[in-house]
Design brief:
It is built from 5 helices and 5 strands, in the order αααααβββββ. It starts with 29 loop residues before the first helix and ends with a strand. The protein is of the alpha+beta class.
Length: 166
């Protein structure tokens, strides 16, 4: 499997330099735009070298100066590569919202983004161990008709509330 890393922008925005986002302040100066573009290009280079934390820092500087959806997308990709599930999901959500505000429609790569968010959600699953005394108790979660296993039981669960029956 070969992953495309030199260009981490969404397909529809791949050839664009940072452009004004829907959440951009109208007073952004040409100087800020130029600085943001420089940081953005540096982030692209770092990302292509798989230096995701450094790329994230540089993309963040770019976004502080000039807010664009594509920069949010690239920051989310960095979080994805770094395995920071919550920030990955939040980043993609911010990108989608920003893109919608700017363009009045869903991003063209929405299916890919939702798949990436699902991948990040897998990182949110928590490992839980259920023990009892005596061992061997039947374990049910939320439904007394669906046996999950017997104690001691270690399983992965999505964040949330569960009703445990032993």
């Amino acid at each position: 499997v070969v992953e495309k890393t030199p260009d981490v922008t969404p397909p529809a925005e791949a050839d664009k330099k940072p452009t004004p986002g829907a959440d951009e302040k109208p007073s952004a100066s040409a100087n800020n735009k130029a600085k943001a573009a420089k940081y953005y290009m540096e982030g692209q280079k770092l990302y292509s070298q798989e230096l995701y934390l450094s790329a994230l820092r540089v993309y963040s500087k770019s976004y502080e100066l000039f807010k664009t959806p594509v920069t949010l997308y690239n920051m989310a990709k960095c979080y994805e590569k770094l395995g920071e599930a919550e920030k990955c999901i939040e980043g993609f959500e911010r990108y989608i919202d920003s893109y919608r505000k700017k363009n009045g429609k869903e991003p063209p790569d929405i299916v890919d983004i939702k798949n990436a968010m699902s991948k990040c959600r897998l990182g949110l699953r928590l490992e839980v161990t259920i023990e009892s005394e005596p061992v061997g108790a039947s374990v049910y979660l939320d439904d007394t008709q669906v046996l999950v296993g017997q104690t001691p039981l270690t399983t992965s669960l999505d964040p949330g509330s569960y009703t445990l029956y032993l």
